[in-house]
Amino acid sequence: MDYFKKIFRFAKPYKKYAALNIFFNIFYALFSALSFVSLIPMLDVLFGEDKDKVVEKPVYTGILEVGDYVKAYMGHYMQTASEEHGQQFTLTIVISLIISLFLLKNMCNYWAMYFITFLRNGVLKDIRNAMYKKIVELPLAYFSEKRKGDTMARISSDVLEIQHSFLSILELIVREPLTIIFTIIVMLTISTKLTIFVFIFIPISGYAISLVGKSLKKRSDRAQKEQGYFLSIIEETLGGLKVIKGFNSEPYFNQKFQKSTDNFYHFSNKVLNRQNLASPTSEFLGIVVITVLLWYGGRMVLVEGTLKPSDFIVYMGLAYNILTPAKAISKASYGVKKGNAAAERVMEVLEQENPIKNKPSAIEKNYFEQDIVIENINFRYEEENVLKDFSLTVPKGQTVALVGQSGSGKSTIANLLTRFYDVQEGSIKIDGINIKDYKLSALRGLMGLVTQDSILFNDTIRNNIALGKENATDEEIIDALKIANAYEFVKDLPEGIQTNIGDGGNKLSGGQKQRLSIARAVLKNPPIMILDEATSALDTESERLVQQALENMMQNRTSVVIAHRLSTIQKADKIIVMKKGRIVEQGTHDELIMLDGNYKKLVTMQSFE
After folding, report:
1. Listed residue (429, 367, 419) closest to 394, CA to CA
2. Cβ atoms of 505 and 454 closer than 8 Å
3. What element of type H or E holds 582?
4. pLDDT tens digits for 18-72?
5. Cβ(415)–Cβ(421) below 8 Å
6. Domains along the chain?
7. Global confidence as pTM
């Protein structure tokens, strides 16, 4: 229940629906009990009870005697009506009363369910929105340790499980207990002795039911984790179909997926079979109570003569009326245990601490004046440092290129500049201000980013390019495409910039996708450009076209270029050669060639590729 207390805060905006649900559930429970009581006069008419006995009009003597007063008053009314209009008329009145009570009961049931629908779906919507917002805010480091499929399972099926459990809890708290309470009150007015006898057995049956659900939360948690695992396999499979097919690995991935779904199958069976045991167990124990009631109540009617037959028949109906809410409570309690596991997984994401966030006094600065200064950076993703005592100054308007072997820490610089990861030792300053003192939105607003992987979305070309400037005109979009040398292929597409490029841009070639990524950065028009191997996915012709576009774009702009192809950075103002997280050489292209060191070796190696 601890996690549900945290989930309940999402219900606050919908408290009026909760109040209306409780209101109609109270009347549902009341009419549910009264609808059985209304059968007593009809049975009295049918059995001819008190036919020759004169029933005086009762006098109200207080709340403690209200049950006897109502029964006596109804008896008096029945006798008077029968004498004046006949028994057929009295029976019609009684039947009308019964129909009215059952109609009111079912109307209240409908309205209670009507209002709870808004509450359930509203909570579902708000939790999903909160989870998505949190997922977008969390740093990249969080997702490097988590499976994407597990996160997808939490935001989809786990949230849905909470929704079902949420409804169960409201029924558990309001509707079913009230139905039982009102029914018991009526049962006590009919026969206190018989009701006390019945309730000796209820705690015994309740204890037996509680034993069934003890391990349900643990089993449910295992099933939900396994669901997250096979969703991860699906996500990885869809992303790597070319490799799977190219290496004839279909059998391996089929086996991997089937093993996961087999585990999910077994876990789910155990959860559902344990849950399904609730209803028959509670019903059987309820029937045992009814049987004992038949024996003891029948003795009161036939032997002792202390209970009227009509009262006993209605009493039996009321006793059985307790079974339905009791079964619902036991089933709902299992739902709560199962949902508690889902709530735990959801709250784990929502309560995840985000280390990369704005300070209370963060600066909103949207212009760049002087330089970028990286001072004595030491940084590690896990245990070993990727950057070691790294320092660099990038003056405004200059292009600085980072080169070196894979794993030398080049792309880490881009991740730190944009605060995808935070510096552990040392500092990065823009215009003399530590980037941790900037608002994240302001910091990233100063930068345009083109990554090695062309990250595009299943949307139109226009919407993909306009990510950094949502109010851009078609003319601005086309100008950006022209600068990136992408308009030549976009204008030939069936719908031009309104063409949908498919999932991840899979309708386009690698070079075309990369040129769209560059156009997106061009349109944003930031003062600082970060190009993380932006031309590595291009063929020779596209590289030449894009390189010219990049050079035009980088004029009078501060640029940090992480380069794989050294031919693309020969005009850089400064080239930084990195090896194992350290700067080993720096200078212009000509200066580094003259040094006859690491840079020249890299150039020589690439000239033979």
Report:
1. 429
2. yes
3. strand 582-587
4. 889 989 988 888 888 777 777 776 666 556 555 555 456 666 666 555 555 666 6
5. yes
6. 2-17+110-350 (1.20.1560.10), 371-607 (3.40.50.300)
7. 0.73
